[in-house]
Write a structure and sequence with these properties.
The complex is a heterotrimer of chains A (about 60), B (about 70) and C (about 170).
Chain A: H1 40-48
Chain B: E1 3-5, H1 7-15, E2 19-22, H2 26-31, E3 38-39, H3 42-52, E4 59-62
Parallel strand pairs in B: 2-3, 2-4
Chain C: H1 2-11, E1 17-20, H2 23-29, H3 44-47, E2 54-55, H4 61-70, E3 76-79, E4 85-89, H5 91-94, H6 102-105, E5 107-108, H7 119-128, E6 133-137, E7 143-148, H8 149-166
Parallel strand pairs in C: 2-3
Antiparallel strand pairs in C: 3-4, 4-5, 6-7
Helix pairs in contact in C: 7-8
The chains are: A mainly alpha (about 60), B alpha/beta (about 70), C alpha+beta (about 170).
Chain lengths: ~60, ~70, ~170
């Protein structure tokens, strides 16, 4: 897989690498020609997991 | 009625000597908690609140988020 | 859970009981200090450079460029008087223009990251995306600092080595 952020075709539709949804630009690097683009939802999910989530506690 | 407060108000009350109580289970408390907070999971409040908290000082309770 | 705890305390006779509605997540996400086993885990906010140069929207780009380069930096964060991040000047933008205001050449609305994000994840993303710097802000948009890829990678490597040492047979 090409990991370059700039080699995607400019006319090609950008899609999130994780969920394949269509996006205008990568939510991590803000580039519209990102080879490893990620959408906002997937990025938040990925980075959000770095705070320990609470275990089930029956709130 | 308990009053809902935000982060700024928490900091202000702490500087005035308020007590902080995390009501999440012990395991989560041990992972990470606010500075100086004591752990009183909901079920322990019944038996321990009166001995571990000073009723003359303000008390701030919190859990993970607003959910 | 905590509203019920607050009500219960009141029923015991505690007269001044408050409920921190946004809770622990809000506190950690704001980059405020914490205690406990995970509190020492390096995060983006710990490694971010707090001395990153800043400028305002209406400054002349040539003046900003001179100031930033003199301080040996290659990035500048555009902030308002409340230190809310409005834009970013990376290498390419810093090289552009003379008399234009910063507002005309900056990258507007850059992606920003919270201080609580783990340094390993940030390093991985920055390397994958070939991104040299990322602004770190509190949840209300205030600048904490700028995370440099080199710093993030170094901190992540150190953490990995430490982890490996701890788990050596």
């Amino acid at each position: 897989m090409n990991m370059s952020t700039t080699e995607a075709e400019p006319t090609a539709e950008l899609t999130c690498l994780k969920c394949h949804s269509s996006i205008d630009y990568c939510s991590f690097c803000d580039e519209s020609r990102c080879g490893v683009a990620v959408c906002y939802g997937c990025l938040i999910e990925d980075l959000g997991e770095t705070v320990a989530q609470p275990h089930d506690h029956g709130g | 009625m308990p009053q809902g407060i935000d982060r700024d108000e928490v900091q202000r009350l702490l500087s005035e000597g308020a007590q902080l109580v995390e009501v999440l289970p012990r395991e989560e408390y041990e992972e990470e908690h606010l500075p100086g907070a004591i752990n009183l999971p909901l079920r322990k409040i019944e038996s321990e609140a009166k001995t571990r908290l000073d009723p003359t000082r303000p008390v701030i309770v919190y859990c993970w988020d607003s959910a | 859970m905590s509203p019920r705890a607050a009500w219960r305390l009141e029923s015991f006779g505690f007269t001044e009981v408050y409920h921190y509605e946004a809770g622990k997540l809000d506190w950690i996400a704001a980059g405020l200090p914490s205690e406990g086993r995970d509190a020492e885990r390096p995060r983006a906010g710990d490694v971010a450079r707090k001395d990153v140069p800043t400028c305002s929207l209406d400054e002349r780009i040539a003046d900003v460029r001179a100031r930033v380069r003199a301080a040996d930096w290659d990035v500048c964060v555009v902030v308002n008087e409340e230190r809310i991040v409005l834009g970013l000047l990376r290498h390419d933008q810093l090289d552009k223009g003379e008399d234009e205001p910063v507002e005309q050449v900056m990258r507007p609305g850059p992606s920003t990251f919270r201080p609580h994000v783990g340094i390993e994840e940030m390093a991985r993303y920055m390397i994958e995306h070939d991104l040299e710097s990322s602004p770190i802000t509190t949840s209300d948009g205030r600048l904490v600092g700028v995370l440099l890829r080199t710093d993030a990678a170094k901190a992540a490597n150190k953490l990995r080595e430490q982890h490996e040492r701890e788990h050596e047979p």
